[in-house]
Amino acid sequence: MKRLNPLLGIIVALLFTAPLIGIMYIADQVVNLPFVPFDFFDWIAGVLPGNLLTFGIDMMIDTLRFFGGAEAVTNAKIAERIMAVVMFGSVGLGIGLAFFALIRFMNVKPSLMTALGLTAVFGLPMIMISLTTNQGGTPIFLTIPWLIVLFAIWGFGLNWAAQRLLGREEVEETAVAATEERSVETLNRRQFLIRLGASTATITAVSGGLGGMLARQDEAARLAAGNAGASGGTFITSFPNDGDAIIPAPGTRPEYTPIPDHYQVFLRTEPSIIEEADWTLPIGGMVDNPVNLTLAEIRSNYTPRDQFVTLSCISGRVGTGLISTTMWTGVSAQDLLATVGVQSGAKYLEMESADGFHEIIDLELINNDERIMFAYDWDGQPIPKDHGFPLRIWIPDLYGMKQPKWITKMTLTDEYRQGYWVERNWDEVAQVKSTSVIDTVALDEVESSLGQTIVPVGGIAWAGDRQISKVEVRVDDGEWEEAELRSPLSETTWVVWRYAWAFQEGEHTFEVRCQEGDGTAQIETRKTQRPDGATGIHSFEI
Ligand SMILES: Nc1nc2c(c(=O)[nH]1)N[C@H]1C(S)=C(S)[C@@H](COP(=O)(O)O)O[C@H]1N2
Ligand SMILES: [Mo]
User: Fold this and answer.
1) In degrees rounded to 5, what are phi and psi of residue 178?
2) Residues with CB under 5 A from ligand 2 (ion)
3) Which CATH number describes the domain made up of 262-413?
4) Which of 118, 176, 209, 452 is deepest in the core (most CB within 10 A)?
């Protein structure tokens, strides 16, 4: 019998694993069948101990920053997805290697049994994982047979390829000379592998390419839903500070973030898409009247509240892009809870989300702040599916990690339970740290004044709901100079500031710092984002 190099098992397994991934991907895009690599990745991320997970994510983001600069950070999801595919693929290739090693060293012969074995070893755990983690609504009587067929094609294909590569024993017996046989053998093997590779590469490329195209279209459509036509890409077109004399310096980020540009953070490989028809909100636990509300009921039974909100992620670094501002509309948590009859012993409201995320909020906090709301609109439109449709909470002054989106269940309880990121070593309170950022030194927008060339410098400052009383700018270790503040959209949004810099030729470093409403200074000591938010001064070089 011919000998097989076990490493060949990796190559052959690749030729079957790549199209398997491609076909699962396009089936996910077209008919919402599970894309198992993402489920596998989400499952691993969910069972890993918290510090390992955050360590992994940090390392990934650092690597991305190293290769792709700051822009890539918000695209960390893409890295996660690539990692998911690589990890899933590695399992397939590992099994291929092991299979060929068994053939080579343990004298195992490819047979019906080994084909079934390969299918089971790769397929069974992956199917179980997908069933427990997948968020798609496709019924299991469709997904299970579909996945079994796919993994069987993989297992039987790999088995068949091993048989072909081994050749039939008769051929070997009639071979004349060993050298001749070897060259015929390598030629045949090479031809076989090339043909096999060409066809499976085609399947992979076509399905992967089409799937990717559909995925991008889908996401763009979800984010832009309803957004076309309105001026400036937003629905709200008049703002409380419209008359303010302080105009943002050219190049400052939009004061009101267009929804498609709103930053996004979610723990799974993909956002959790919820359809309104499939959703109701049960509120239970320690209540006298448990309810199960539709979105229409939430919209019509309670007085809507509008609030301009800046939201930010605790995992942002100094000068973070993970911060955005829009108008939130929803019902006050006080109003909602008033209708369910909260029992006297209840201490917390626990919220669970479609993606397994969960958080808890002290009822005392709700009772003391009527602004805390369950929001259903952003920018006057239903919250985009990617951002938490149909319902998410807003809690002023806290980072996003305490504020579940895609809420599917609420429970009144007297038992404390750590939230999802708190279990993973992030801060229990997660109060926003005040921050200030330089967006622009507008060198091509200079003005002249009294024989001086003036360069507008600008950016934002934010301190949760504690407001901003002062922003100061320093150039090259000079004096701290006060910037002008534009009145903010609300007491909970960032403040746009601008500063007039008298131009001087050369290289310069700009720094910014702020003070909260009560004069508390921004923390200047540099500290990483873990566990309770980054601090330090943002600087900008030109
Ligand atoms: N269900 C759910 N809610 C969630 C999260 C999540 O992963 N799942 N991430 C939180 C974090 S860490 C942040 S910063 C905000 C981000 O909201 P956005 O993506 O709409 O900007 O959502 C919060 N709520
Ligand atoms: Mo976050």
Assistant:
1) -60, -45
2) 265, 313, 400-401
3) 3.90.420.10
4) 118
Predicted confidence (pLDDT) per residue in 512-524, tens digit: 999 999 999 999 9
Lookup: tokens for 252: 């400052």
Residues 361, 353: Cα–Cα separation, whole Å: 14
Give 303's DSSP letter: -
Please name the residue ranges forming H helices in 394-456.
Answer: 420-423
What percentage of the chain's residues is helix, strand, coil (to nearest 5)? 45, 20, 35
Per the model's pLDDT, the better-predicted residue between 63 and 308 turns out to be: 308
User: Number of C-alpha atoms within 13 angstroms, CB side, residue 172?
Assistant: 9
Q: What is the largest CA-CA distance in the chain?
A: 100
pLDDT digits (tens, 9 = 90+) for 465-524: 999 999 999 999 899 999 999 999 999 999 999 999 999 999 999 999 999 999 999 999
Residue 433 CA to ligand 2 centre (angstroms): 13
Ligand 1 pocket at CB < 6 A:
262-267, 311, 313, 353, 355, 357, 387-388, 400-401, 403-406
Taking the centre of ligand 2 as the mean of its atom positions, its distance from the CA of residue 90, in whole angstroms, is: 30
What one-character-per-residue DSSP string does 320-373 give?
A: -S-EEEEEEEEEEHHHHHHTTTB-TT--EEEEEETTS-EEEEEHHHHHH-TT-E
CA distance 542 to 535: 23
CA-wise closest residue to 306 among 257, 365, 242, 239:
239
Residue extents of the structural domains in the chain = 6-219, 262-413, 435-541
CATH topology of domain 435-541: Immunoglobulin-like (2.60.40)
Q: Which candidate, 316, 395, 396, places its Cα nearest to that of 351?
A: 395
